[in-house]
């Protein structure tokens, strides 16, 4: 007999600015059961569709506290370079409104804030360069005024379905001194709690392979982006070098679960994460899925021989 299905009843979020247009207010999740009969994959296992979301939630709830340490250990720190590359490709300008989905620990959002601050510094220096007769007090005043709005209207909204991941992200933001331009919202990538055409850029890094219905997540990304907005996805992908592929498989299945057990005390969660990477569509197939969602000028960039890829598309 099929496992019970979780259907969602929504109650109102207090922040009206997050609500969809022409849609009833949304809310925290309450569940009742109903059979669906459809199946999907959870790593290499086949499970009822309605079970996957809860299983994935438990995985990330389990690994949340050690998530960043494990990322450094598993990738030997290279994940930081991949995320740096993503933000450079994004190239946000002051005033940009970013939605980072499945970004609970804040890695992409923090980089976005740093990038905007660096852009602001360049603008200040550029303006002062052409005003050679300014006194020291004038220059100091100029920096002081700019500091009052160091992100110049930019905002990063971090949306994650897992409250434990969001909790870790908020703690990190306080520890690292990010007090401006960040919001944290609990929400499902397949049913985002935001109005239509609200954001300039949508990012999702190492998260889309964990959703139950990738097509629904892509449709939601399209919906919340403004016309001209950009979709960017950083995700593990298909290695295009046979030698690297063999070494990568050996490392993934023989080393990563062991690291998970030693560092996080959780073999099974990291075994799932490795398996979920192998079940994710290869680059060309995922590109077609993004195009089917309505995006134009879709392309991808392979990094580290295709261990990861950054997919990009525009809402025109």
- The number of distinct β-strands equals 11
* % residues in beta strands: 15-25%
Largest sheet: 7 strands, mixed
| Count of DSSP H/I helices | 11
Q: Unreliable segments (pLDDT under 50, ≥5 consecutive)? A: 1-35
- The separation of the N and C termini measures 45 Å
User: How would you state the average pLDDT, rounded?
Assistant: 80
User: Could you state the order of secondary-structure elements as H and E?
Assistant: EEEEHHHEHHEHEEHEHHHHEE
Features:
316 residues, alpha/beta, two-stranded antiparallel sheet, 45% helix, 11 strands
SSE layout:
Elements: E1 4-10, E2 29-35, E3 39-42, E4 45-48, H1 49-63, H2 67-75, H3 78-90, E5 97-101, H4 107-129, H5 136-147, E6 155-160, H6 163-176, E7 182-186, E8 199-205, H7 214-224, E9 225-236, H8 242-254, H9 256-264, H10 267-279, H11 283-292, E10 296-303, E11 308-314
Helix pairs in contact: 2-9, 3-4, 9-10
Molecular structure report:
The structure is a single chain. With 316 residues, this protein is of the alpha/beta class. The chain contains 11 helices and 11 strands. Strands 7-6-5-8-9-11-10 form a 7-stranded mixed sheet, with helices on both faces. Strand 3 and strand 4 form a beta hairpin. Helix 2 runs antiparallel to helix 9. The longest helix has 23 residues. The N terminus is likely disordered.
Gist?
With 316 residues, the protein is an alpha/beta fold.
